[in-house]
Write a structure and sequence with these properties.
single chain, mainly alpha, Arc Repressor Mutant, subunit A, 84% helix
Amino acid sequence: MEKNIEISLLFDFYGQLLKEGQQKCVTLYYNDDLSLSEISDQLGITRQGVLDSIKRAEKRLYAFEEKLGLLERFQKTERGLYKIESLAQSLNDRYDKTTVQQIIETAKSLHE
């Protein structure tokens, strides 16, 4: 996965756990696509300060994911849902609606 997307997703899950300054820097850098200099000007800190804040935030986001695994679970669920959707479409293409409904009812009864 591309790093920018990965950081944005991790930020969606764990961003509120970061310090306020880190939240601002990550949002401006990854979500708003501002340069370090632009962020520096906007927040009134040095360019190096912005970079340090972003690097510390990235490290914390990865640490949260390593401990909690929310992004991994989310992605696993997404893959499972995609597979279910694909299988359902395959059933729909292959069988008439009555047969598909019978398959669904049979599957439901197995889970009860």
